[in-house]
Amino acid sequence: MNSEKTCGCHFSRRSRNTIGQGLCQALSANMTCQVSNKRLFAPLAILALLIFLQLFHSCYSDLSYIRSAIHEGQVWRMLTGQWVHSNGYHLLGSAVLMLLLNSFDESHLMHRLPALMLLSCMISVGIYIFYPGLEHYLGLSGVLHGYALILLCENLSTSFKLVCIGIFVLIAKLWAEQLGVYPHQSTALD
C-alpha cells in the first residue's frame, strides 16, 4: 500500500481527504500546544512563586539578602535573596526577561533549574566575598543575566557575530550599572 506523509500523519493516497488532513492538522496543533505548555511550565511556576512572595511583604524583609543578617547567622538569605523583589515593576521586569529568555532556549528552562539555582547561590557568595560594601540585594536579574550569558555561549558556533554583540550589550549594561550611568536601584539597596 502506497502511503504519503502529510502534516506528520500517514494516509494512503486513496483515503487522503480534507477531513483526514484537517484532523491531522488539529492533532499537530494539539501536540504543538502540549510542547508549548511544557515549555512554559517552569517559567510560569517560577513566576507564581515570585508573585506569591511579592504578595507577602514580610517575606521581602525575611528573605532578601542583607549582609548584617547573614553575619548574624541567617544564611538562608544567601539562597533566597534572588527570589524577592522590591516592587511590582521590579518583578514585572524579571518576569518579562525570564519569559523572553525562555523563548530563545531550545532545552527549556525546566532543564536548567538546577544550574540556575546553583548560579543563584554563586551570585550570593560572589556578592558576599567580592562586594563587601553591598549591604542589601534582591531580585532575579543577576540570575537572568547569567541565564542570558549561558544561552549566548551555547550559540557561539551558530551565529558568532550576533553572540558577540549580545555579550557586548550584556557587559556594557552591567558596566554602566556599576558606574552609575544606568542606575539599577531596585536590586542593590544600600
TrEMBL record:
It is found in: Membrane. It is a multi-pass membrane protein. InterPro entries: Peptidase_S54_rhomboid_dom, Rhom-like_SP_proteobac, Rhomboid-like_sf. Its EC number is 3.4.21.-. Pfam families: Rhomboid. The chain crosses the membrane at residues 40-63, 83-101, 113-131. Its main location: membrane. Keywords: Hydrolase, Membrane, Transmembrane, Transmembrane helix. Residues 73-168 form the Peptidase S54 rhomboid domain. One of its GO terms (molecular function) is hydrolase activity. It comes from the Bacteria. This is Rhombosortase. It comes from Spongiibacter thalassae.
